[in-house]
Amino acid sequence: MKKIKIWSMMMLVAMTQTMMVACGGDDSDGGGSISLTPSSVVMYYDGTQQLKADGATNWLSEDEFVAKVDQNGLVSGRHVGTTTILATNGNSKGTCEVTIKPKYSLVDTPLFKWGASKSAIQSDETHKIYEMSNLDALVYDYTYGTTACLVMYVFDNDKLKSVNALLNKSMYATAGYYLLERYQPVGIGSGTDVYFIDAMTMEEAKTAGMLDYLDWKNTTMTSIFYTDISIIKQSSAPKRSLLQRFKITEDIEKVLLNKMD
After folding, report:
1. How confident is the model at residue 230 (pLDDT cuts 50, 70, 90)?
2. Phi, psi for residue 84 in degrees, rounded to 5
3. Which of 19, 79, 88, 257 has CA atoms 20 to 30 A from the CA of 45?
4. Which of 117, 175, 107 is nearest to 141 (CA)?
């Protein structure tokens, strides 16, 4: 009886191992791999790269916001980031890592934590803060090298609603290219305002933005205004002036004029 039990246990172990091997085979494609040439690509957002893979019948990009690929293996850059291009022939597959690098490193990216409290933003921010009195906003120095920049986090009932990056007037064109590398343009206003989102469609987007000039106190600045996409969807007139968004106090006036001089 003991021999039967031992034999049964041995058979059970053997069957389990066989099943595990079979499952492992199912997880893999079982048909080997396709060799992609090149196996990795680094280029700008407006660049292209032809990939080659013998026998590939289907091409796919894991993140089409970063780069897309056609069915001939031609990769086209879209936005700064990294994605993987997959080539298959039904049985085998191969991959190529594509990195879209920036030409313009204008400023650090602010924190787009919509709905976060002032204390939460202060805890996560690493830039120099300007102490302000009686202001429902936080102001930070985002100067990047020789590029002067102020970033203002604006709150409503202690919830982050918008972020405004202010640069010198001369930085408008550079800011435009900086944004094109990172965001999808979705419209142009009646003047110099350009609208963009952080995805290929409004349904996928979380952040919307606007590039424009801001005239104030005889000073013209380049303004990049970011906000929660849900606010844009709910409003028929998303464009608002800086003065309408929050009250300008004497201390913030001093910082603005000194910084943008």
Report:
1. confident
2. -115, 130
3. 88
4. 107
Helix (H) or strand (E) segment spanning residue 102: none
Q: Residue 177 forms beta bridges with which residues?
A: none
Nearest partner of 155 among 72, 247, 222, 69, judged by Cα: 247
CB 149 within 8 A of CB 143: yes
Q: What residues form DSSP beta bridges with 86?
A: 60, 95
Q: What is the three-class DSSP state of 78?
A: coil
Q: Can you give the pLDDT at residue 219? A: 85
Could you read off the pLDDT of 142-170 as tens digits, one per residue?
999 889 999 999 898 999 999 999 999 99
**What are the backbone dihedrals phi and psi of residue 56, each rounded to the nearest 5 degrees, phi first?**
-70, 130
Q: How confident is the model at residue 192, as a pLDDT?
A: 83
pLDDT value of position 136: 83
Cβ neighbours of 111 (radius 10 Å): 17
Give DSSP secondary structure letters for 133-176: SS-SEEEEE--BTTB-EEEEEEEETTEEEEEEEEEEGGGHHHHH
**Is the CB of residue 257 less than 8 Å from the CB of residue 217?**
yes
Contacts of 159 (CB under 8 A, 6+ apart): 114, 115, 116, 117
Q: b/e map of 223-235 (b: 16 or more CB within 10 Å)?
A: bbbbbbbeebeee
| Residue for token pair 């597959």 | 93
